[in-house]
Structures are given as structure tokens and as C-alpha cells.
Amino acid sequence: MAESLRGKLLVATKQLKDPTFYKTVVLIVEDNEHGSMGLVLNRPSSILVNHALSEHFQLPESHELVHVGGPVEPAALFILHNIDELSHEKTTVIPGVWLGNSGEAFEDVLKTTDPDDPAVRFRVFCGCAGWSPGQLEGELAHGDWLVAPANRTTVFAEDPYEIYDNMLQEVFAAHRILPHTSPNPQWN
To answer: Which pLDDT band, with edges at 50, 70 and 90, does 173 fall under?
Structure first.
């Protein structure tokens, strides 16, 4: 098996013909011999987190939206958060970002954190993206995805609609052969 993509971002290219992943950025949260799983970072829904979880928890009103994590298991909920002391599963995806999907993880993060604390960040996702063994490698070889390192700023971006364009710029800048601007205008 090739190097694990866990903790990396997949940025959709124009080659990718699947409309489900058009202009998406996916955080890979699991990648092993059994396949790969990720969460689409830039597809917020119109459903508020406190409404989606109202049958399970009494939560204060919030502007946080549930994000569509992908087409697989659309009823399953996942939470990414940055609160080390509340990480029961100890499943770190990247440094400072943990994944949870148990009721206990949701309750701890959503009920015990101060929503006004700017240091506390979380995202709730319904569904995920999934690939069977070898499938993602085939899509990468076909040129469907660009791979980029993940960071907390991207995972918890204030405006998820900007993630795709920002990541494309980062990937292209990292792989640019010639500088974007030259020091001498005559070289243009």
C-alpha cells in the first residue's frame, strides 16, 4: 500500500466527472488497506446543528450549519473539533483536529463548550465520502484529485465556500515551476 493519505486534503480537478464532488475539498480521515473515508469540507447544508440534534440534545440557538460530508451513509453524523481534553476516541486526524461520531463526543463538544469562545472550533457533518480499496488510488492516477496538506485553518474556515478556490491557489503555487511574477518586467 502507498503512503497513507490520512490527514491530507483532496482537491477536485476538472478531470473529475462525478457531480457529487464538483469543486469539493475532502479531508481524508481514514486511509488503510480496507479503503478510504473523508469529509467534504466545503458543502454546508441549510440545516442548523441545534435543529439536527434536537431529538438528542437540548442545545442553545446557534448559527452553526451541518455540512454534507459526502454521499455515503447520509444519516451518520461526524464531528471534527479542536478540543483535546474532550477527545474520548483519541482519533486525531491532523495535529489539533479530532474526529468523533459517538453520542458522548457530540454531547461533550456541543454541550460543554462556550459557543462564544473563538478558540473552540467544531464542524458537524452528515454522511461521508468513501472509497473501496484501490479506488482512490485509481482516481488519483487518473488525475481526478490534487493532494494537499491539511491544516486547522482550512478545516474550520470561516467561509467554507472559499475553501476550494483557496486550496487550488495553494496547490498551484506549491507546484509552480516559474515564479508568478518576475523581478524584471521585460521578462514577461
So the answer is: confident
Which pLDDT tens digit goes with each residue over 94-114? 999 999 888 888 877 877 766
Quote the cell numbers at residue 30: 481514514
Question: In this structure, what C-alpha cell is assigned to residue 116?
Answer: 462564544
All domains of the chain in start order, with CATH: 8-178 (3.40.1740.10)
Position 46, amino acid: S
The dihedral over CA atoms of 88, 151, 3, 177, expressed in degrees to the nearest 10, equals 180
Other beta carbons within 10 Å of 175: 9
The DSSP line for the chain is -----TTEEEEE-TT---GGGTT-EEEEEEEETTEEEEEESS-EEEEEHHHHTTTT-------PEEEE--SEEEEEEEEEE--GGG-SS--EEETTEEEE-SHHHHHHHHHHS-TT-TT--EEEEEEEEEE-TTHHHHHHHHT-EEEEE--HHHHT-S-GGGHHHHHHHHHHHHT-SS-SS-SSGGG-
Band the pLDDT of 49: cuts 50, 70, 90. Answer: confident
Residue with cell 503555487: 173
Q: List pLDDT tens digits, range 140-160.
A: 999 999 999 999 999 999 999
